[in-house]
Automatic annotation (TrEMBL):
Native species: Flavobacterium enshiense DK69
UniProtKB keywords: Ribonucleoprotein, Ribosomal protein, RNA-binding, rRNA-binding
NCBIfam families (UniProt xref): bL25_bact_ctc (TIGR00731), PRK05618.2-2 (NF004132)
Ranges for domain Large ribosomal subunit protein bL25 beta: 99-179
GO biological process: translation
Protein name as it appears in the record: Large ribosomal subunit protein bL25
Biological function: This is one of the proteins that binds to the 5S RNA in the ribosome where it forms part of the central protuberance.
Pfam families in alphabetical order: Ribosomal_L25p, Ribosomal_TL5_C
Length: 202
């Protein structure tokens, strides 16, 4: 999985007044969990652009002044309900030998015969929850729709996994090819025409 580097400064004071001052300075207050003790730090809001405002997922390298560096993932984010300004971010520290759970996007590949015949592809799951060691976290989960005929569904059990596990029930539908109204109407008209032709032969 691709990684983004966030450079910040460790915070000693974490009270409300201090947090407000950090935000007023155009910085985002953050907390890193998962280690021996939480690490409070702040970073420029623009540093999170490639992490927050994207459909992709990334791991994070938090680099703090003094040479401290931590590998982490985004755990939680708070944004202002009106301005969408980032108010606070929680990170969770990664450990090479410890599995982590996170959601990754679904990437559709292949060409469905059902879609070529006029069916509509519906993506039921835009993200899937995976569990793996940090080094094995995928950038995306691949959903191959090549076998899908009209009306078929692709279940999570058909998704290939490589050094990671999918944390979903076997009956979870990732995507499906639904019969479009146009295709349904065409089929009905064809059936009527065939039935009418049969009557004429009699």
């Amino acid at each position: 999985m691709k990684s983004i580097t966030i450079k910040g400064s460790e915070r000693e004071s974490v009270g409300k007044a201090s947090t407000k001052a950090v935000r007023n300075a155009g910085m985002v207050p953050c907390v890193l969990y998962g280690g021996d003790q939480p690490v409070h730090f702040s970073a420029e809001e623009k540093a999170f652009k490639g992490l927050v405002y994207t459909p992709n997922v990334h791991t994070v390298v938090v680099e703090l002044e003094g040479g401290k560096s931590y590998s982490a993932i985004l755990q939680d984010i708070q944004v202002h309900p009106v301005s969408d300004k980032i108010l606070h971010i929680d990170f969770y520290q990664l450990h090479d030998e410890k599995e982590i759970t996170m959601e990754v996007p679904v990437k559709v590949t292949g060409t469905s015969p059902g879609v070529l015949l006029g069916g509509v592809l519906r993506l039921n799951q835009r993200k899937l929850k995976v569990r793996a060691l940090p080094a094995n976290l995928p950038d995306f989960v691949e959903a191959d729709i090549t076998p899908l005929e009209m009306g078929n569904k692709l279940y999570v059990t058909k998704i290939p996994t490589n050094n990671f596990r999918l944390l979903h029930p076997d009956n979870t539908v990732v995507c499906q090819v639904r019969i479009s109204r146009a295709a349904m109407k065409a089929a009905q008209e064809a059936a009527k025409a065939e039935k009418g032709g049969g009557k004429k032969k009699k």
